[in-house]
Amino acid sequence: MPPPPPKIIRVVDLETTGPAPPAHGVCEIGWQDVALGADGRWELHGEGGARLVNPGRAMPPITQAIHHILDEQVADAPLWHDVARAALDPYPRRIALAAHRADFEQVFCTPALTRSAEWICTWKCAMRLWPDAPSFSNQVLRYWRKPEGIEHERGLPAHRAFPDAYVTAFTLRDMLNDVGFEQLLDWSRVPGLIPRVRYGPDRGKDWREIEEEVLIGFLGDRDIDIRYTAETELARRRGGGPVGRETRQGSLL
Predict the structure, then answer these.
(1) Could you tell me the residue ranges of all domains in the chain?
(2) Which residues form the Exonuclease domain (predicted)?
């Protein structure tokens, strides 16, 4: 009997004309798989890939300045719905999808296109595992952590779909080998737990350091991650206990 196919998580990254469909569309998708080996360790799997996509509209200069994809490069490319299923639901079938700030990808990668796949958000998980990182962007984590085995040039240029997926895959690999698949799913299902206050007079402080009156003010913030963080810290102060896992680097709570 042939061995069963490996358990695979597909890391994806999208380049788009903007953040909000249907006004905006996908112009490139990239992917890199991470698979569970026979030794119980997760490693990058396969070569990954990318496809240009016709977004069905002109490329705004403000987004071209980020990814540098030209209208003429995507004019003859397939449309998103002709590309998405094969890229998001490959064979062997993946057990989950992953992305850095996966909430963005999920706006375009709808349950109908992913067969309702579970998602891991490496941004949310990074804040739980490495709260002392100087930033939680894909590229800052890359250079701060220096993951073993990453090929520098293969992860360039930044802000193109395959290089960004490739870099994220190393972050995901190390997270999986540290805390496991189920823990990453749990953290990804709730809003992000922000390690430090982002703005205002207390900017940069640990949430435990700010006055309760100020903390309560954050409960009405427009950002769901900040609201969740404030709610979590308030619950801790009032006896609700910590949320999530204590890490080797320490936790927010």
Answers:
(1) 8-188, 192-253
(2) 8-181
